[in-house]
Amino acid sequence: SSGINAEWPLRPGYKVVKQKIFYDRWPGDDRWRDLPLWGEWQTEWYHAPTAADGKVPRNEFGNVELFKPWMLPKKTVHVDLPGTYALARRLGIDAAHAVVGFEFPRCRAVPMTSGVVVCEEHAETLRLAWEEYNNNQAKKQEEKRLKRIYDNWKLLIRTLLIKKKKVPTATLR
Does the predicted TM-score (pTM) go above 0.85? Predict the structure, then answer.
């Protein structure tokens, strides 16, 4: 007896592939056996949960797994804009990070998130708030840039005047 059970008990629903037996074999022995790869419970279609009472259904880590578009929970929308999670929290909107895949730096699985998943009734509010926030940020950046330009010009003029010794330093402030 070679220790190989040729009548492997297979339950219906397993995908069966041929596996070459590499242990317990003699040279020239090309025996193959059937090997079940996965069970029926692993091949069922994913049924997305439904959002209720403004709450987004999450996994055990507090995220929504969104590897394919049809994995989006019912009555929810994927808002793929940067910085929307913090904005949703500030507005009091229930949102969950959308995990779209995994990266493997240094042999570890790290989830890749892209945007948030919110209920349909809050999606437009979040998008409008995001646009307003970005417009305000752009205005602040422009004001900061102009202030820096004016401060640089003041510094240049002050430096030139001091070098020429036309005006004492006390009167330039």
Answer: no
Q: How far apart are CA 22 and CA 16, in angstroms?
A: 18
* Cβ within 8 Å of residue 12, ≥6 positions away: 40
**Measuring CA to CA, how many Å separate 173 from each of 2, 158, 170?**
96, 9, 6
Q: Where are the alpha helices (DSSP H) in the chain?
A: 84-91, 120-164
**Cα(16)–Cα(24) distance, integer angstroms:** 22
Average confidence (pLDDT) per 10 residues, the chain, 173 residues: 46 56 56 64 82 93 93 95 95 96 92 96 96 96 97 92 69 58
What contacts 43, CB < 8 A, 6 or more positions away? Answer: 13, 15
| Residue whose structure tokens are 């041929």 | 18
